[in-house]
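[09:14] KT: can someone run the structure on this one? pasting the chain below
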Amino acid sequence: MEAGLAFAQDEAILRAAESVIDEAVEFTQEMIRIPTVNPPGEFYEDGARCIGRWLEKAGFASEYIAAEGLPEHTAKHPRINVIGRREGAGPGKTLHMNGHFDVVPAGRGWTKDPFGAEIADGKIYGRGTCDMKAGIAAALFAAVALRRAGVETNGAIEISGTVDEESGGYAGVAYLCKTGRVTAQNTHFAIIPEPLNVDRICVGHRGVYWFDVVTHGRIAHGSMPYLGHSAIDDMGAILEAIRTELQPELAKRLTKVPVVPELSRRATLNVNTMSGGQVGEDVQSPCVADRAHAIFDRRFLLEEGFDATKAEIEKLLESVKARVPGMRYDLSDRMVVHPTATPLNSPVTQSLQAAIRRVLNKEAQIIASPGTYDQKHFDRIGHIPHTVAYGPGVLDLAHQPDEWVGIDDLKNSIAVLAMATVKLLNDPRG
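[09:31] RB: done, structure tokens below
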């Protein structure tokens, strides 16, 4: 496209983004007022239907997909996802934009109604504003803005609203990928409008290894502990070895992937939960603990890999066992998520960079996330390598009291996503 025509098209998209912002705010408010809280998965069908109505209004054909066969999909709390598809003016590739509409519980400390969708000082307040109902709005109204600007695309645009991201996404994006609805065979690019700041593109995340360790002792009377063997003492020895031997080593390891915040570039290990002995609040038992249980959260780097990460844990446990007479333990895997890293030369990354440069007049910051999100499923199950996250909102506000999203950020992200969509679907090199 000639420079003059491209400039005129961009200007039309910017005007269209301005013209749709009131509708985008209305949609965001409507979604916030549906308390799609996870757990347990409240009002999911209401949330999916709301998205579907707006998709159809924007010229998309809507499809509702229940996570049939999964234990979390129940009559009381059905797992309902929605996908809208709009065909372009001619043949081409498919861009899929996905957002989850489940939200974490509101919690305490709010000064606003968490499900009131109040607007104040150019911000929309409520649980799920930035994480990530405004992101779904940005994707939807990017498509609306293109129509309003008179810009046609080739191929197809898909927009999905999915469930359970906050609990792993297995009834949401993972289900869509496993059942073949979203895979490399039918999807070329994916953008997830997570709240990572409007001038950032997130290309991946660290790996996750959650594992359980159970130590086994011998019960005995608390007045004669020498007749038993304390499982809690053994777990204490493991924790001490982690603190003094493993964690100092992990702190030295830095990934080359641009993870933010800066300290999250390190490999880390956290104890998520612990229990032992006679479990119960304020319960006193005159017994030596014959069992202790801990759940660990190891975040590993792309450079480390999972096999080496697990082997290191196994070596440490065996080392402690060799030093503690009578120690017995079990190690079991709870969850493994491998790191992801979309190439910087990916068309989806480069299209967003160009759009941010045009809309915000600045260079995009390329980052990776300290935690995981649904990119893991697009990458590992769907085998869609050209997947990134980009959307409105400040990541630090997610899961916080008085969560909000800026209306100006929402408008700018609409323009960025619209321009990136044109680049991806109409550029033959895309």
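[09:33] KT: thanks! Residues 207-337 form a domain with the Alpha-Beta Plaits fold (CATH 3.30.70.360).
[09:34] RB: yep, looked fine to me
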